[in-house]
Design a protein that fits this description.
Length: 300
């Protein structure tokens, strides 16, 4: 089987390499020449333009998009005129599931198949394999099964056809919302232990103990333990936590469906809070305490 990979950032390039290692012939494209050169250095073919990429693939073609969600429609604008009925597109990035449904309908009008694949595994996927949540028509997913089997930790686990177009990105959205909550719980727990100075806890040691036999063991804990081994005091790391959208979408969906999701919601709010320097809300709280109770105000 042959595949065109569009978007050769770190994750896209890693996926291309894992596919190649799994016996899938890959041709990669990226607008940036340095990204193409890095992939070519690994022995994988590259194309300088989308037209060249499409021409390099045998029909019916299969192309995998690994680009930011905000540029997927731009890529489709450029790509769809080059494709023919029977070709198949996969969006493996973090798109909002409703946009994936719209894109699936747009592709169907042209006779092009569309599959949305929620992809988890980050920078470790090349070595460990990726977790794949796949949405789309059964025939399209079956056609792509060799790709999913090559990307997953094993052909028979770590990936699944979870439903129609949109279902893959919906599951990935909820997956990332859960991830927000788990990360926040770990962060708060380690902060509590770090504050208990009378015990002088070795946080890396505690994390390592928890990794074996504990009910809170997880890959996130493995990564936390490795971080604390390298940098126990987390020096050089600013207290600023970004978000890439999935947590917001999860909270919005919970509100729409009237499903209480307080942990995920609060973890998202904590990320927003981490970005506030000289918070007006905190200064307002201090001012109110001073007004009603005469409590001292600290000067900046």
């Amino acid at each position: 089987m042959e595949l065109g990979m569009i978007g050769l950032g770190r994750m896209g390039a890693n996926m291309a390499q894992r596919l190649q290692q799994g016996g899938i012939a890959v041709t990669g494209f990226d607008h940036g020449q340095p990204a193409r050169e890095r992939l070519a250095a690994t022995g994988i073919a590259t194309a300088a333009t989308l037209e060249e990429l499409v021409q390099a693939l045998p029909a019916p073609r299969a192309l995998w998009l690994m680009v930011p969600s905000e540029v997927v429609d731009t890529v489709l604008d450029q790509l769809l005129p080059l494709l023919a009925p029977g070709d198949l597109l996969v969006d493996g990035g973090n798109s909002w599931y409703r946009h994936s449904q719209q894109r699936g309908a747009r592709c169907a009008e042209q006779g092009v198949g569309f599959v949305d694949c929620g992809t988890s595994g980050g920078v470790w996927g090349l070595q460990e394999g990726y977790c794949l949540m796949v949405g789309g028509e059964l025939a399209s997913v079956q056609r792509l099964a060799p790709l999913f089997g090559a990307l997953a930790p094993a052909p028979d686990r770590g990936w699944a056809h979870v439903g129609p177009v949109g279902a893959g990105h919906f599951c990935k959205m909820v997956h990332n919302g859960i991830e927000y909550g788990m990360m926040q719980a770990y962060a708060e727990g380690f902060a509590l232990m770090e504050k208990k100075q009378e015990f002088a806890l070795d946080l890396a040691q505690v994390a390592e103990v928890w990794r074996h036999g504990s009910v809170v063991r997880s890959w996130l804990l493995d990564l936390s333990a490795a971080t604390l081994q390298r940098n126990p005091g987390l020096e050089g790391i600013a207290p600023y936590v970004a978000d890439s959208g999935e947590g917001r979408w999860t909270v919005a969906e919970a509100l729409e469906l009237e499903v209480p999701a307080p942990v995920i919601t609060q973890s998202l709010l904590e990320r927003l809070r981490s970005r506030q320097d000289n918070s007006f809300a905190d200064r307002m709280l201090a001012a109110m305490r001073n007004e009603f109770g005469g409590h001292a105000i600290r000067k900046p």
